[in-house]
Amino acid sequence: MNGTPAHEPQDPDGREPSTLFAQAREHLLAGNAAAADAILRRGRTLVPDDAAMAYLHGLCLVQAGDPPSAAEAFATVLRLEPGNGRAALMLGRALCRSGDRAEAARWRTELARRHPGDPALLNELAADLLEEGDEPGAARLLDQAIQAAPNDPDVLHNLGVGCARLGSLERAETLLRQSLERRKGMPARRDSSEAALAGVLATRGSFDEAQAIAGGLLDRGAEQVHAWTVLGTVAARRRRPAAAVGALLKAEALAPADPGVLSNLAAALDEDGRAAEADARWRRLAASGHAGAEARARLASRTPAAGEAIRRLFPLTDLRPGDGGPVELAQADLCIDQWHLVQGDRLALDLVFTPPLGRANFIVSADGTGTVLVRDDLERRRIEEPVVFLGGTANYYHWMLDTLPRLAAIEGLDGPLLVNSAQKGFHLRTLELLGVPPSRLMVPDAPALTRFARLTVPGLVSRPRRADGQMDWMMPSVDRAAALRVRDRLMEGIAVLPGKPRRILVSREGSLFRRCDNEEVIAQVAARRGFVAVRLEELSFDEQASLFAGAEAVMGVHGAGFTNMLFAPPGALLIELHPAGHLPEFYRHLTQLLGQGHRAVGGAITQALRPAREYNWNFRIDPAELDLCLAELGA
């Protein structure tokens, strides 16, 4: 920046600009922004083209809480010194705080263009973007900064934080560990990297190390909000809701307005059955503009928005007659394909298996006490003829083991069978093998809320429920008799061909989610043990059943294809690869019913794919660990 002039003018009190500058600086350092502002206004009047005076005034105005005036001061600096990166950085901040994000973005783009080799400046700009929630923009700048300064601990730290927020967990962990290594002897800065690393480890499933780091931070009195949040996260993932609530209450006491703490605490309170306390947190989140919390607040206040309604949950099994026969309903509404059943102001979930995420879900919000907010904006239709409910879903497992068993209870019942829309090959083939002609199927349009004058629901089974009355979608409900009945009927019409591989590796190559990132290496390990890779999506239903009927061992990433263990012989072994700490019970349960073996091999999570649930995230398996596991199993 240019210095003050050699022959300086004076203000009415006889002070030269350099004296005014020094006095203002002292006031600013002492926290007296008002006194500094008065002095700097005199100074800028005396020397309007002094960039240093304008820059100091901009800092003063930021401290005084006047971002529009601060932006004017920093813009003056840039008019005088177009290459002043610090002024451009501060101008971007002031514009953002003034609400002019478009102009801020223009100046930030210009800053990055003019200073591509200044890692400190790029790192500060990226930190601003991280604070504002622009993780992709921050990551681009930090990738640029790390090229110029690959060992800069601050750049490594911020890039690690950005990667973690973007879900790139494996890279985030590597970067944060590198930052820690280079921050030795810097306790305060190490604390922030340790806190970030603990959060990544908790998300990846490395619970013990995450807890150890968080405990160390608490012992030192450092990063306490983050540390308690990590401990709460670990407890929640280990399905210990009371412990999660305890830790997150500690975090809330330290940071009562932190939206991350509040949302985690509200979810933990819901899980622990403390609905009223959860509601209080959801309302606070809603007041801050949290979209998901706003729906919960509408439910709590019983003020649904347009296109919404409030319903009370009830178990449809309560209507089952004493002889176990079908449930007969009159004037019942069904959300087609999702199969939520509405009677008056009540809602039954017994027929629902795979509700979609987000706005498409019929249920908008639930309060943990059996009251739910639902969509009320679907097209309304009516069907007057009597209908028998079979239901169904596009999910192969739930079709095979939750829907098809209902057919046994349908025998002897007349009328069209209500099934899901978008029937696939496996739907039609299995129904054919079980003697259901296509002409009997009723395939309604979806989405719609359709009223049935008469609806018969056979084959209801008791299903696991959560404390709030909702179905526990992730717990299997099929029993051995039902599974064997479906298998035996289907296999009557399937030719089992010889010459199929006995050891099968189910490939998910090319999948966008629940992907084993080092599948190619895992395939090499498996091949040495005699496994043959197959892509089930390339096989017909009959070919899949025939293939599994001769299998002695099946391995692959958790997925619906393992439903075909239904056709494998007793004693066959299933080896499920999965993200560490996250494996649904479906196939462990199925193999146990069928007298088969099961082994789960977890791998470190590499990428979080929010809002999908954790078992759908990408991961990496340790090849040596897998090889040892296969040797132990004799596979």
Can I get a quick summary?
This protein has 635 residues and is of the alpha/beta class.
Q: What attributes does this structure have?
A:
single chain, 635 residues, alpha/beta, six-stranded mixed sheet, 25 helices, elongated
Topology at a glance:
Layout (H helix, E strand, L loop, with lengths): L16 H13 L3 H14 L4 H13 L3 H14 L4 H14 L2 H14 L4 H14 L2 H14 L4 H14 L2 H14 L4 H18 L2 H14 L3 H14 L3 H14 L4 H13 L3 H13 L3 H10 L7 E6 L13 E9 L5 E3 L2 E3 L14 E4 L4 E5 L4 E4 L3 E5 L4 H8 L3 H4 L6 E3 L5 H9 L7 E2 L6 E9 L22 H12 L11 E4 L12 H10 L3 E3 L6 H9 L3 E5 L15 E7 L6 H8 L3 E11 L10 E3 L2 H11 L2
Parallel strand pairs: 1-4, 7-11, 8-9, 8-11, 9-10, 12-13, 12-14, 14-15, 15-16
Antiparallel strand pairs: 1-6, 2-3, 2-11, 3-4, 5-6, 16-17
Helix pairs in contact: 1-2, 1-3, 2-3, 3-4, 4-5, 5-6, 5-7, 7-8, 7-9, 8-9, 9-10, 9-11, 10-11, 11-12, 11-13, 12-13, 13-14, 13-15, 14-15, 15-16, 16-17, 22-25
Uncertain spans: none
Radius of gyration: 31 Å
Number of helices: 25
Query: What is the tally of beta strands?
Result: 17
Strand-pairing-aware structural class? alpha/beta
Distance between termini?
72 Å
Overall geometry comes to elongated
The main sheet comes to: 11 strands, mixed
Helix content: 40-55%
Content of β-strand: 5-15%
Walk me through the structure.
- With 635 residues, the protein is α/β, with parallel strands linked by helices.
- β12, α22 (519-528) and β13 form a beta-alpha-beta unit.
- The chain is elongated, with a radius of gyration of 31 Å.
- The termini are far apart.
- The model has no long low-confidence stretch (mean pLDDT 91).
